[in-house]
# Entry
Amino acid sequence: MNTTQENLTPREAAAVLKRSPVTLERWRRLRRGPPFLRVCGRVLYRAGDIAGWLDSQRQEPEPQA
# Structure
């Protein structure tokens, strides 16, 4: 287990993703968006999980005919 990985608050994660904290709250409710943790009732995001989720959202452009 990597205990040195940075955990972000929803506000900090929203800033990284350039979205509002309300959007992240909606994504959690809908089970969308990056993975998150609930620790003692507090929501946290791992910085590496956000990076991995962003990578998974990448789409290659269609080749031109």
